[in-house]
Amino acid sequence: MSLSLGKALRVGLCLDHLQLLQMTRELSLSGISSRVLEKKLIPCLGATQSGSALQTLEAALSALPEKPGSASVILSNQFLRYAVIPWSDSLSGEAEQQVYAKHYFGQLYGVPAETWELRLFQEHPGAALFVSAIEKSLLQGLRELFAAHKVKLASVQPYLVAAYNHCHASLQHQQGWLVFFEAGSLCLGYVVDGHWRGIRSLKVGNLDKLSEILDRESYLCEYDAPSAEVYVWAPEYRIETMNKSVRWKIHRLEMQAGPDYEARFAMALCG
Fold this sequence. Notes:
The protein has helices spanning 50-63, 94-109, 136-148, 159-166, 210-220, 266-269; strands spanning 3-13, 17-28, 31-43, 70-75, 80-85, 116-121, 129-135, 152-158, 175-182, 185-192, 195-202, 229-233, 249-252. By secondary structure, the protein is α/β, with parallel strands linked by helices. The chain has 3 domains: 3-76 and 136-160, Nucleotidyltransferase, domain 5 (2-Layer Sandwich), CATH 3.30.420.10; 79-134; 168-253, Nucleotidyltransferase, domain 5 (2-Layer Sandwich).
């Protein structure tokens, strides 16, 4: 016997489509569990900007016969920018870290960072700062949209962060390259004992030339990256053919899948 804790929504927001999962949360003797009631893939009209994705989400929420109590959103990496910023002992407090990160981002991407909201993560004192940046207008649009529908926005996460957290247990003692792939976008980073050393975002259509990309990035990177181990997160993509690489040892990062799992909804489910 179980007790219903209400319905929730999980959203995977991409430039070209929307992953919409209606969930129910239940309490039983074994604890709290979630179950998928309905899954939808909805194409975005004019798939070139965040406004189109927000309009598609607005229409999807309006069409729901019953509003959920809360929602969690996973944002495609195409909406975000990332950086790993070396630590400076001269920084004291979160305010100085934010100023430092904004300056670094401005130099890295060549545009002012005032229109972005930066989120900083540091695994331990003295470690490099992992920073994600999202356009403030997109984040504000999400907040206003869910507020208008009287749905609590429980969380907004970058896809890279959600996927990394999902498989962190299998990476925390590893050294090597991390590859997070979704259609049209690839995030490539290097970790030592699960700690980020660097990260780059690239526009790619598929993973057929991953070995060549790794060859180039390992040559160009500014930090020591001696490992040939490569850990790939690409739930919707078959990577078996890439295991033939002479130099690189390719490992697939697996989704911890339940009975409701489908690879095409991996973004929404990994949050």
